[in-house]
Amino acid sequence: MGQDAVAVVVGGGVMGAATAWRLARDGHDVLLLERFAPGHHEGASHGETRNFNTAYASTHYLDLVQRARALWDELARESGQVLLDDVGLVNHGGGERRWGATHDALRARGLAAEWLSARAAHDRWPALRFAGGTSTGRDVLWVPSGARVRAAVAWRAMLDGVERHGGRVRHGVRVRAVVPLDGGGVRLELDGETSDGGTDATILARTVVVTAGAWTTSLVGAVVPLPELVVTQEQPAHFALATTGAGDVARVDAMPGFNHAPDPERPLDRYFRSDVYGMATPGEGIKAGWHGVGPVADPDARTYRPEPDQLADLRRYAREWLPGVDADAAVPISCTYTSTASTDFVLDRHGDVVVGAGFSGHGYKFAPAVGEALAALATGDGVASARAALPFRFGPGRAVATGTPTGFGT
């Protein structure tokens, strides 16, 4: 029989790393298994930056993002590294009609949210151009609580934390099957040799947490009542900075992340594929992308190639709205989204299998809070943490965490 563990986390992206970190930090025996090599580009957790986007109107997401911020800060103290840059977030397109509920929800929680005119915002952040024209001058919602996650550093800090607290991390281990046992517990069937020379064919666990991203349905869809999860290949890009003053490196690196919603009353926005999200990535320029409109993909048979028409429209967007970049100097990126119909997450337990999935392109910033909730579901510890998962349960009535704005990309 293979190596036993109390809790096994399957999938070592940011959600799995966060869950394993929490379990290990709380003193639990945990083993994290990841199919690919460290830092791989096969899923959704790679890359240097993400927006820490606090611009939600939903109570559930605001609860989760505030808890996530506290845990990011805890991990930063524990690791001795800077994980978030407090650059803020700007939201525009549609003005108060589009962002008013978000403004009110943030202010109700005591979080700063300030309206700016498009001109004032551009004067402050010249690498960005802003949609204007509202009669009130409430064109741009500036949210100082937003930040930029140093994603690659943060993921590594979580894995280091797992091992620092006595957990185990193994890469190059493909889990072929998750088999719930009649008497309780779960058997994991492994595919071939592990990268460290082991030959475990099976592992027995009291509880398994599956955070397998695009592979979730193929791995546990037959044993867990998942909602439909649609996998798409998303295709943002990094744009090199312009050689003009708007591309000044220091100012760009300090600029806020952004969400830009197309205005249905503005004909010139009709080429938008979706909301646009973006942020500065120091050393790489400005990242921008459409949100959740990539082609449906098999995660084991991706092309990794940008769809030409989408890329052309993204270049047009950069030319019109990002004066700080060279729109012709785009470096496309390929990643996956695993999305639910509502874009709400899936956080639940079925028997001895816990699932975290369906993060729909807006999950990264929540990772430590999601990991805390999944760990609580796995162990039964932490009633408040487990309660955070309630809006995201399985089943047709689960989608109660409404109010998610689009534009929450990675």
Number of strands: 21
| Low-confidence residue ranges | 397-408
Per the principal axes of the C-alpha atoms, what is the gross shape?
A: globular
Instruction: Kindly report the name of the CATH homologous superfamily of the largest domain.
Output: FAD/NAD(P)-binding domain
Number of helices: 10
**What is the domain total for the residues?**
2
Describe the biggest sheet? 8 strands, mixed
Organism: Serinibacter arcticus
Protein name: Sarcosine oxidase
Domain FAD dependent oxidoreductase: 8-377
Pfam families: DAO
Textual characterization of the structure:
There is one protein chain. This protein is of the alpha+beta class. It is built from ten helices and 21 strands. The protein has two domains: 172 residues, FAD/NAD(P)-binding domain (3-Layer(bba) Sandwich); 165 residues, D-Amino Acid Oxidase, Chain A, domain 2. Strands 1, 2, 9, 10, 11, 12, 20 and 21 form an eight-stranded mixed beta sheet that branches. This is Sarcosine oxidase.
Give the structure's gist in a few sentences.
Keywords: FAD, Flavoprotein, Oxidoreductase. The chain has helices at 14-25, 59-79, 95-108, 118-124, 151-164, 216-220, 249-253, 308-321, 367-379, 383-387; strands spanning 4-10, 30-34, 49-52, 84-85, 89-92, 114-116, 140-143, 147-150, 168-171, 175-180, 186-190, 202-210, 230-234, 237-241, 257-260, 276-281, 285-290, 325-332, 335-339, 346-350, 353-357.
